[in-house]
Structure to design on (169 residues):
């Protein structure tokens, strides 16, 4: 299982020069962290708090890090079943497999400075994983009209939940 970071509440130790770039690369003091096993481990002790900042947390330390967009990416999508009984699974850059549903909500917004779609799935502890372009295209293959038909929107079903992802013309 994952560490219980929601139960750890140490005082802030300070800022650490770790930055997660939008392309999912991690940098320490400006140098690329090439060991994916290390970044995968760090992702298990990360959370975003009410101040909208990201932290690496242990029982005795809490370090603020920088995240350009989302700390994780969702690289692949798998659909099981069809219609309202469909289940959509996303695999993150930390190799976690998530069932899109009430525990892992799918939200498709846009970036504040453009109309570019920003599809994310909620992971845990305030963390999001942004769907990479190929996963978003895979998601689009499962789009249906809103079942209530009242607002000309469309979306996808997963785990018995309808997730709206856009409006029709």
């Amino acid at each position: 299982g994952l560490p219980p970071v929601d139960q750890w509440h140490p005082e802030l130790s300070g800022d650490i020069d770790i930055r997660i770039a939008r392309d999912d690369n991690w940098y320490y003091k400006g140098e690329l962290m090439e060991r994916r096993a290390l970044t995968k481990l760090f992702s298990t002790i990360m959370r975003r708090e009410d101040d909208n900042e990201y932290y690496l947390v242990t029982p005795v330390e809490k370090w603020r890090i920088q995240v350009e967009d989302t700390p994780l990416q969702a690289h692949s999508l798998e659909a099981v079943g069809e219609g309202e009984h469909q289940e959509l699974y996303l695999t993150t850059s930390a190799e976690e497999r998530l069932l899109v549903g009430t525990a892992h909500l799918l939200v498709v917004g846009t970036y504040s400075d453009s109309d570019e779609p920003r599809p994310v799935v909620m992971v845990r502890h305030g963390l999001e994983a942004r769907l990479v372009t190929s996963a978003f295209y895979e998601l689009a293959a499962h789009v249906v009209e809103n079942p209530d038909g009242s607002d000309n929107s469309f979306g996808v079903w997963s785990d018995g939940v309808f997730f709206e992802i856009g409006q029709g013309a």
